[in-house]
Amino acid sequence: MNDDSLMDRIFRTFDHDSDGYLTCNEWLTGLWIFLKGNVTEQTTYCFQVYDIDGDGYLSKGDLFQLLKSSLRPAIAKAMPFGQRGGNEQTPADSPRTARSHRQITRGQTEEADKEIDLDLVDEDKPSGGPTAAVMGNNEDDPDEGPRDLSEMALGLLDRDMDGRVSLEDFLLSVQNDYLLMEILGSCLPSGARAAAVLAALSGNGTLPISIPPPST
What we know:
Recoverin, domain 1, 2 strands, EF-hand-dom_pair, EF_Hand_1_Ca_BS
């Protein structure tokens, strides 16, 4: 997790009473979702993180902002050096989120599906490689790629075709394809890291304390 804006959203999602602090119960509830949450609990949590304005829906604007932030490292490296901001050294997003980005583009064309492989993005590839396929080829408009991806993502997630993504839409989409859970940015630990934390807490992979399930 290397996106400051997404980290802020994660904190706000943990902070149920919005007082700027985490109580013990809020922290344990967050840990439950991180370490032992089921698919529905983790999907609901991801949706709440992605819901930037807290209105219960993901708009096309929400999708654009999140995808732009998630793709920022690749965008920065693809730009001419003199045009780069301060993010060119930002670590790339997680392989799981990269695979989610690939999933958005899947089905556009058979040729693109064969070409796009973001598990190991090679930012030195010439135009037409995976970075260009995701970001677009217009160097004068670095927002082109995220904008195109946001339109694809909306079509992929908007199950009832009302122009926005509800929690129900998101749950159904993830139910059909687990990779879509973190489609808009990494906000969960990997399974290996979650297991490592559990092991560190207890020495045998089980928690020595009873973490309460998330309150409804």
